[in-house]
Amino acid sequence: MRRTALITLVALLLAAAALRDRVDAWIDAADLPPTLAETSVEVRDRDANLLRAYTVGDGIWRLAPTLATVDDAYLEMLIRYEDKRFWQHPGIDPLAMLRAAAQALWHGRAVSGGSTLTMQVARLIEDGSTGRWAGKLRQIRLAMALERHLTKVQILTLYLTHAPYGGNLEGIRAAALAWLGKEPYRLTPAEAALLVALPQSPETRRPDRHPEQAKAARNRVLARLAVAGVVPQDQAHSAQQARIPQHLRPFPQLAAHLSDRARRSAPDKQRHDLTIDARLQASLEPILAEAAQQAGPRLSAALIVADHQTGDILASIGSPAYGNAQGQQGFVDMTQAIRSPGSTLKPLIYGLAFEQGLVHPETLIHDGPVQFGRYAPRNFDGQFRGDIRVREALQKSLNTPVIKLTNELGPARIMAGLSRAGADARLPGGAPGLAIALGGVGINLEDLVQLYAALAQGGHGPGLRTRLHELAPLTDRTLSDVAAWQVGDILSGLAPPPGAPRGVIAYKTGTSYGHRDAWAIGYDGQHVIGVWLGRADGTPVPGAFGGDLAAPLLFRAFGRLKPDLAPLPPPPPATLIMGAAGLPQPLQRFRPRSNRFTDTHDAPKLLFPPDGAILDRAGETVTLKVRGGRAPYLVLANGQPVAKGHRRSEFDIPNPGTGYSTLVVVDGAGQSDRVTVRMD
Fold this sequence. Notes:
Blueprint: H1 2-28, E1 42-44, E2 50-53, E3 61-62, H2 72-82, H3 94-107, H4 117-126, H5 133-149, H6 152-162, E4 169-170, H7 172-180, H8 189-197, H9 211-227, H10 233-240, H11 256-265, E5 271-273, H12 278-295, E6 300-307, E7 313-317, H13 346-355, E8 364-367, E9 386-389, H14 390-395, H15 399-409, H16 411-420, H17 445-456, H18 481-491, E10 506-511, E11 517-523, E12 527-534, H19 546-561, H20 585-588, E13 605-608, E14 614-615, E15 621-627, E16 633-637, E17 640-646, E18 650-654, E19 659-666, E20 672-679
Helix pairs in contact: 2-8, 4-5, 4-6, 8-9, 9-10, 12-19, 13-15, 13-18
């Protein structure tokens, strides 16, 4: 008898082992579907807040989650409600299956399911059915295979990625953003219970279409979890009274144009981290839309905010609305559109003139009729003001004085200054002419902001950047620190719009020919903001002026940016601050070369150091040798007088310091020569 029993036991064990081996082979032979599903490309701000997401195939919202970014209380509620032995079972839960079968026999219908979370994942990634025994058996096989190839955390993450929540929503993050308007890392008990309940029947429980069914399902989850002790009874009761969301919320679409640019530039990246501040971006987009609407029909607008100390672009708005509402052609990113800058290049021209020793802010310059060949510029209002200080000429944005300075500097030098600042200016054709001073060149808003950022940083600052983890590009020195400060000092003296603070923002407005573009660009001690308004198709906007349309928006944007503006920097030590009468004689009044000389004296020539020389920085002085001209000589280094009254052809000046310097010698008749040297 014992022998027979022993043989029977051995036979049973062998049969069980054989069955186990066959089951193992059956599971191992399962054809696993892909588990790496496509998830939405995300664009995030400097603090990792979502700016924009893009749908995947078939227009589905499916955002990649991690357990670390999902509320712990929700995860506990999900597992206790759906699969309380999730962390222990091998993919199937025999106890849950026996319970479900017994309840079905007792009630004559299915009362509860025996599917585990792993089985639900198997169904989701295979997109299979559950209504037939063959489908259920396939899910059991696939679930057990998944458990052998993936960790529990990976399986739970797959559920959080693929679970359906109604419509085109898949995954916990898409559901939380669409139904609750927030990421799922901090949920109330009512919110968590709703997100637990929806995947069981996502279409019949959609809160926007079937709010009563959604509420009933949520409350059943809360009631069961309260009995299980997962949610305190008082919290569960309070949560059951909470309102159900009534509609789908739109996904974030901040900095839409910049997000598109980031995605195009790196199409293989799943996540793009930008320098944008989502809070600031969200606060500025409505005021830009409001300003464009008030300005007139079919008006578009664009705005950029940057930190000129770091180069970070903090807000970028390419149009008032990302679409074609009211004919605004909102899909066109006007921060990148090439437009005429109007008068916004004038500060650069004056800065170069200061640096080259042509004028000083207090120099007198004549505003009157002038003609260069066939070109006879006129002021915007058609009037002339006679002798006027350079400071006032820039503040009043007069045309004839700046054209005179452009003629002296040469248009090529203006273009080179733009290039050194990091701005990509486009000529309509041929060589640059004098008209570039009045907007006869193409440039976009971002490059104009780059130019003014360089002015704000003393003539040399970092280039603008939009990607958070990339170094800001380096730009060449645009102006000397003294010339840049002089420009800022003049622009800060402009009268602001009514009610705006005075003397704290250095700004310039501009209006292009035919009233096609209205500009305002300004900076304080830390930030620079650029504003453009016009029509995307370039048609005129009658009566549009930068001072009327763009300037108020500029100051309003600064108000949204921060409550207290950063002060502008003090003048550099070498700055020459005095009235016109105290200036050296050649700087007291600007006289163009065309009518400057009535005698036959040759212009001075700097023989040493020659242009482009590299000199030893050692020593306190540098020797200059001059030929020609008429004594006495005035010498400027980087726009500042460093020597005057010299009558000999060879004399010493103070060492201008390490790096590049522009040396200008001006003789007693106002004639000049200049060289650029480098001190190493």
